[in-house]
Amino acid sequence: MKKRFDLSTLMRSKVTWAVVAEVLILLVCLIVRPDFFTISYQPSTGMLYGNLIDIVNRSSEITIIAMGMTLVIALGGTDLSVGALVAVSGAIALKFLRWDVTVYNTPGDYTVSPFFLVLVVPMLVCILMGLFNGFLIAKWEMQPIIATLILMVCGRGIAQILTNGKQFTTGYSPFRVIGQGSFLFLPMPIIITAVVVALVSLFVRKTAFGTFVESVGINRKASRLSGINAQMIIFIVFALTGFLSGISGLIYSSRIMSNDSNNAGLNFEMDAILAVVIGGTSMTGGKFSLVGTVLGSIIIRTIVTLVYYFGIASEATMAFKAVIIAVVIVLQSEPVRNYFSKRANARAKLANGGVK
């Protein structure tokens, strides 16, 4: 028997309203600038350019971090350290590339350490930092917001210590590819993000891990009694979040070909949490939506693009962004979703002659 399409159920979905919000924002962008959807090809770089490409490209760091943040929030917690881990990752990468900066001030197309160390060590360190967060939460049963606040505060200090307070720059071509290169006519950060999202989705949805995360998030004690190793789940989630923060840090530092311990990853934790919430994952833990998180990240970047097109003064940018985000969240609120769901259900009854 063919299953009937249920519009009322669709209207109750937060992901649906995230899509609606993104379409509305893009529509406003199109009205403000009719050429908004123009996409061009640059033979010199072998890359496609345009606002839509730029939105997805520039949202890459937040999207990658938000993949881990989704699982953290599904556990009923938050990770405030991800922005600091981005700074640490970039600092370590540039340290391995240019520890000779005190001898040779001019950056060149070279690295003083094997390139695999430039890539691997930052991610390993970020994994260890994620495990540190997991240890405080799983073993010492600290509140996640308190446990991760430790690295949020001291992480940038660690990055400053690693680079002796200096801002290293590099001209190493293979490192530049991470944030500025292209593949299949698309910016490399988009490709990296697509691979990360696909792998994380396969890991949590094609194995029992996603179900375990939801179970621990709903009731940690009950999940333990049912045979789930809640502590191990917490360790894995925070280690994965640290790993993803390390990847994001490499992309960020590659974009600017430098480390910037003061500004790298600044407020990334807030944007990542916001992306998860806009995507429909509840802050109380339990069920989560990775697709919704990706949409949430893209919505945030689209709002930033909209702000630029409106020519909003820098002093008012954050306030304008907050107003739009507030509207998006209101659209996703339960009363609004229930209202449209009831209207859709009523229309369906009328279409069927008053018989459901």
Report what the structure shows.
With 356 residues, this protein is mainly alpha-helical. The protein has a domain at 61-265. The chain has 16 helices and 4 strands. The strands form 2 sheets. A two-stranded antiparallel sheet has the order 1-2. β3 (182-183) and β4 (186-187) form a beta hairpin. The longest helix has 27 residues, at 230-256. It is globular.
Q: Give the neighbour order of strands across the main sheet.
A: 1-2
Low-pLDDT segments, ≥5 res: none
Count of DSSP-assigned helices: 16
Distance between the termini: 17 Å
N to C succession of SSEs: HHEEHHHHHHEEHHHHHHHH
Strand % is under 5%
Radius of gyration of CA atoms, rounded to a whole number: 22 Å
Q: How many strand units?
A: 4
Average the pLDDT over all residues and give the rounded result. 87
Overall shape: globular
